[in-house]
C-alpha cells in the first residue's frame, strides 16, 4: 500500500490495489463533543497541557475554557498552600489562575519539606527563589519536618 500526502487540508491519498482512496485527517476536537476532547486533554501532564494549549486556537479555547482540567492539576500539586487555594476560590478566581498563583509557593514548600534547605545557617545562604510568603499552617509543616530530621 502506498501513501501520498495531498497538499490540501492534510488529506491523505492512499493507494490500495492500484485505486486511490482519499482519507481525511481531521482534528479530533472538530469531530468529538467538547466533553470528550476535555477527557482526552485530562490525560496530559501539566507541561503537556500547556503545550497543547499553544497548538491551535481550537485546542486553546477548549483547554482555557475548561476549569476541570486546571482544577485537577491544581489539586494534585502536592505542596500547595490550602488556605491560599481556598482564598483564591472564594475570590472567584479560575482554577488556572489559582494554579499559576500558587505554583511557586508549592515548589518552595516541596523543597523545604524534602530537606533541601536543612543545612542553611543564615539568610545569606538561601538560594534565590527559595522564599516566598507562606501561610502559618505551611510553616508549621515545614518546622515539623525539620524537627524530625
Notable characteristics:
149 residues; mainly alpha; 8 helices; 3 strands; disordered N terminus
Let me know the average pLDDT: 80
Which bin fits the share of residues in helices? 40-55%
Computed Rg: 23 Å
| Series of H and E elements | EEEHHHHHHHH
Molecular shape: elongated
Spatial separation of the terminal alpha carbons: 64 Å
Largest sheet: spatial strand order: 1-2-3
Runs in which pLDDT lies below 50 for 5 or more consecutive residues are 1-14
* Proportion of beta-strand residues: 5-15%
Number of helices: 8
Largest sheet: 3 strands, antiparallel
Question: Class by helix and strand content?
Answer: mainly alpha
Total number of beta strands = 3
What does this protein look like?
- Strand 2 (11-16) and strand 3 (19-24) form a beta hairpin.
- The protein has 8 helices and 3 strands, in the order E-E-E-H-H-H-H-H-H-H-H.
- The longest helix has 19 residues, at 95-113.
- The chain has a 3-stranded antiparallel sheet, with no helix packed on it.
- The model is unreliable at 1-14 (pLDDT under 50).
- The protein has 149 residues and is mostly helical.
SSE map:
Layout: E1 2-5, E2 11-16, E3 19-24, H1 28-31, H2 34-41, H3 46-53, H4 57-64, H5 67-76, H6 82-90, H7 95-113, H8 136-148
Antiparallel strand pairs: 1-2, 2-3
Helix pairs in contact: 5-7, 6-7
Short précis:
The chain has about 150 residues and is mainly alpha-helical. The chain has helices at about 30, 35-40, 45-55, 55-65, 65-75, 80-90, 95-115, 135-149, and strands at about 1-5, 10-15, 20-25.
Amino acid at each position: 500500500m502506498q501513501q501520498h500526502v495531498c497538499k490540501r487540508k492534510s488529506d491523505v491519498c492512499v493507494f490500495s490495489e492500484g485505486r486511490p482512496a482519499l482519507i481525511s485527517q481531521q482534528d479530533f476536537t472538530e469531530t468529538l463533543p467538547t466533553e470528550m476532547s476535555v477527557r482526552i486533554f485530562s490525560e496530559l501532564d501539566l507541561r503537556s497541557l500547556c503545550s497543547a494549549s499553544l497548538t491551535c486556537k481550537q485546542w486553546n479555547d477548549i483547554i482555557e475554557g475548561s476549569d476541570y482540567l486546571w482544577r485537577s492539576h491544581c489539586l494534585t500539586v502536592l505542596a500547595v498552600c490550602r488556605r491560599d487555594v481556598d482564598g483564591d476560590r472564594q475570590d472567584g478566581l479560575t482554577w488556572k489562575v489559582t494554579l499559576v498563583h500558587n505554583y511557586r509557593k508549592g515548589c518552595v514548600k516541596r523543597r523545604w519539606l524534602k530537606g533541601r534547605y536543612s543545612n542553611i545557617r543564615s539568610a545569606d545562604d538561601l538560594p534565590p527563589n527559595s522564599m516566598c510568603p507562606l501561610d502559618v499552617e505551611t510553616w508549621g509543616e515545614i518546622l515539623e519536618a525539620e524537627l524530625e530530621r
